[in-house]
Amino acid sequence: MFHRNRFYLILGVVTYALSFPVAAQAYLDAGTGSYLVQLAVAFVAGGLFMVKIFWHRVVAFFIGGSKNKVTREDKER
Q1: Which whole-number Å values give the CA distances from 29 to 23, 24, 33, 34, 36, in the listed order?
Q2: Distance (Å, whole) CA 11 – CA 71
Q3: Among candidates 72, 63, 69, which has minimal Cα distance to 55?
Q4: Which partner for 32 in 28, 63, 72, 77 could form a disulfide, CB atoms 3.0-4.6 Å apart?
């Protein structure tokens, strides 16, 4: 019971503190936008690469093959 009361107290204090925004004196230079776009593109590309690797491992698991196995057809190419 004591831990639940502490949780609600902390939640109440954090909610109260975040309820009153203060004006920020901030400056964003011209490169900030392009940096954010670069981060977004890198995040998407990295996520797609991870999905590709994961998908190949799942397929290799179900067909019983290895992703490093070289077949005769691969050698002839």
Answers
A1: 18, 15, 8, 10, 12
A2: 60
A3: 63
A4: 28
DSSP 3-62: HHHHHHHHHHHHHHHHTS---------THHHHHHHHHHHHHHHHHHHHHHHHHHHHHHHH
pLDDT by 10s per residue, the chain, length 77: 557 788 899 999 999 988 888 887 878 788 888 999 999 999 999 999 999 988 888 888 888 765 555 555 555 55
Give, in degrees to the nearest 5, the angle at Cα 7 between 2 and 5. Answer: 35
What's the pTM value of the predicted model, to 2 decimals?
0.45
